[in-house]
Write a structure and sequence with these properties.
It is built from 8 helices and 13 strands. By secondary structure, it is an alpha/beta fold. A 7-stranded mixed beta sheet has the order 1-2-3-4-5-6-7. Strand 12 and strand 13 form a beta hairpin. Helix 4 runs antiparallel to helix 5. The longest helix has 27 residues.
Length: 357
């Protein structure tokens, strides 16, 4: 087991046996808050010995960041401690947790003494704070990896024990894509000095933004690629063509387990999107014409007239549009009236002239 002090009286523990699973401890004169336990009893006992024998600090609280056994099953090794978690953690441990632990014990005799311990103190929404000594801790609901996921924020030090809400590669098999995005963005806005991941190394302040952006880009890419696979009619086995490197992550993370987690993510999204049906992005395309038919009319704007400004109709134009002669509004044209008066004068002169003999 790896042990490291990351701040005054704040410790980080990581398994060197099981996929770098992590736990943490906050030590105060009034006792210790243990955040998660490790997967194997021997490593959890090593943590207990360090805290209670070497540091002489009794573990008063054990926080379960979520119900998965590699983070919660060691709670039973601290019988005097109060177990704390989200309300959903209690219900999931009581159902899926018991089933998973029974299956794990059947395959590994080293787990035989482990028992499910349900949280005795829970919260439901948002966050909850508590104080031990001069330490202020805040429990923050961070669903995505699982619906019950929480992080533990040390408010003064700005250190977040994130559970599996933060891992070297996001893992969604028991979670939700949109909740994971929301939780990552929330974490990015906390102004953190360090993040203790659920698995893997500590993330330092200068690495937080890069990690958040990388994880969000990965989630966007796998969503896009899985939706495209469904449109192409791929089977679940075909998803192996979507490699982890194409999605911006490395296969060597978590001692090579990252590739397996990546494939689980793809399979989980495949099942979800298949149940939802095809997603429609943008306008629905017009169905292709199946036979001959009239071409659709196209509206064109006149190059010389403003179609929004109605044209003023003069009386003569009104009559022309109605099909009548183009005449002035008061009757006859000016030239016609002039010619009529000249003809009348000529007729008058002719009629008054004496006839020749």
């Amino acid at each position: 087991m790896i042990r490291e002090r990351i701040a005054e009286d704040v410790y980080y523990f990581s398994s060197d046996i099981y996929v770098q699973v992590c736990a943490g401890a906050v030590v105060t004169p009034e006792g210790t808050v243990l955040i998660d336990t490790l997967a194997l009893p021997e490593e959890t006992r090593e943590i207990r010995s360090f805290l209670e024998t070497r540091l002489e600090s009794r573990v008063r609280y054990v926080v379960n960041t979520h119900f998965h056994a590699d983070h919660s099953s060691g709670s039973c090794l601290f019988p005097q401690a109060t177990v704390v978690g989200h309300e959903l953690c209690r219900s999931l441990l009581d159902t899926l947790g018991r089933t998973a632990l029974a299956a794990a014990k059947a395959g590994n005799s080293a787990l035989g003494e482990l028992q499910v311990v349900l949280p005795g103190v829970t919260f439901r929404r948002g966050s909850a704070g508590f104080q031990l000594g001069k330490r202020n801790l805040r429990l923050i609901h961070l669903p995505g990896h699982t619906p019950d996921g929480i992080g533990v924020l040390l408010e003064e030090e700005r250190i977040l024990f994130a559970g599996d809400s933060v891992m070297p590669i996001p893992h969604l098999r028991d979670g939700d894509l949109e909740q994971m995005r929301h939780s990552l963005k929330m974490i990015g806005g906390l102004g953190l000095e360090n993040i203790v991941q659920g698995h893997g190394e500590i993330i330092l302040r200068g690495e937080v933004d890069e990690m958040i952006n990388s994880h969000l880009m990965y989630l966007d890419r796998i969503e896009k690629d899985v939706r495209a696979a469904l449109r192409r009619g791929w089977s679940k086995d075909d998803l192996a063509q979507i490699t982890i490197e194409q999605c911006g992550k490395s296969r060597i993370l978590l001692n090579g387990l990252a590739s397996e987690l990546h494939l689980r993510n793809l399979a989980s999204l495949y099942d979800r999107f298949q149940k939802e049906g095809p997603a429609t992005v943008g306008p629905v395309p017009r169905p292709p014409r199946t036979g001959p038919g009239p071409a659709e009319p196209r509206l064109r704007r006149s190059p010389t007239r403003n179609p929004r400004k109605p044209q003023r109709a003069t009386p003569s134009l009104a009559r022309e549009r109605a099909g009548g002669p183009r005449v002035a509004a008061h009757g006859g044209t000016r030239r016609a009236r002039k010619d009529g008066r000249a003809a009348a004068r000529k007729l008058a002169r002719t009629s008054s002239k004496p006839r020749g003999k």
